[in-house]
Write a structure and sequence with these properties.
With about 270 residues, this protein is of the alpha/beta class. About 40% of the residues lie in helices and about 15% in strands. It is globular.
């Protein structure tokens, strides 16, 4: 760290990282691995599941029987914070209180606090509703108002990020694999991010079997920097951590074996932001 600018060292103490990518490429697994790697360094981490198809809890070793209620489904909380009516009609607060939510509603997994946003139904509520107001306010608070690491698992797009929050993220990582479609998704996400002023867009290649595949992915990405590669490892589907009582969970063998590669990716992020 010697010789590096103070500004770089200060920002590296609390990285805000968003993970995107085409469905099925392993973005949730990478998000969980980054959160675990940071936590094993003794850092305080918020892992935010912003994908409506929520799987981050399972990747972090939360047992299936311990289902986490998404914040979007906590109707009483949403009504209390927004002042909305029981039927979600009428007026409600657009800037509700959310600063206590990480401590009160997160699932603790060692040094990781897991929050699950959940999806907001647009069928009856429209695109602006009390639940949306709470989730947006929480996202702004987590990105702009807290001095700790944030790893956010998103959908393939960047719909969760507004212009102000996107410009405050340290990095957007698009997970790709060997397929052309995943690489095209990375390029599309990069273009969308540029439209709202997000500069640090990178890629990580997953399920790579040999150097030739990695090089082919690198060429296909064009000017999207490739931070690193992870190998094919079917063991990761079982989760990264051993489930058990609250405390510091033990990493499974697959997480231990892949930890050096994940740590190198984290070092690349720190070097480039």
């Amino acid at each position: 760290m010697s010789g590096r600018p103070w500004r770089t060292r200060r920002r590296a103490t609390r990285m805000k990282i968003a993970i995107s990518g085409k469905g099925g490429v392993g973005k949730t697994t990478l998000a969980a691995m980054l959160a675990v790697a940071l936590a094993r360094k003794g850092r305080s981490v918020i892992a935010l599941d912003a994908d409506p198809d929520s799987n981050l809890a399972a990747a972090l070793g939360v047992p299936p029987e311990e289902q986490i209620t998404p914040l979007a489904q906590m109707r009483q909380l949403i009504q209390e914070r927004t002042g909305s009516a029981e039927n979600y009609g009428g007026y409600f607060k657009l800037n509700p209180k959310v600063d206590d939510i990480p401590e009160t509603y997160a699932r603790r997994i060692g040094n990781i606090r897991l929050l699950v946003l959940g999806g907001v139904s647009r069928g009856g509520n429209g695109c602006i509703c009390p639940a949306t107001a709470v989730l947006k306010a929480l996202l702004v608070h987590l990105i702009l108002g807290r001095d700790e690491h944030l790893v956010m698992d998103m959908e393939a797009g960047i719909e969760h990020l507004g212009r102000a929050t996107a410009q405050s993220m340290d990095a957007l990582i698009v997970v790709v694999d060997r397929t052309l479609w995943s690489v095209q998704t990375a390029q599309r996400v990069r273009n969308l991010a540029a439209d709202i002023g997000m500069r640090n867009v990178f890629a990580v290649a997953n399920r790579i079997r040999q150097d030739a595949e990695a090089e082919a992915v690198r060429r296909g990405l064009g000017d999207v920097p490739l931070l690193g590669c992870l190998p094919v490892d079917d063991r990761l589907a079982a989760g990264l951590l051993e489930s058990g009582p609250v405390g510091e969970p033990a990493p499974r063998e697959a997480m231990k074996d892949n930890l050096p590669a994940v740590q190198r990716i984290l070092l690349e992020i720190e070097r480039r932001i």
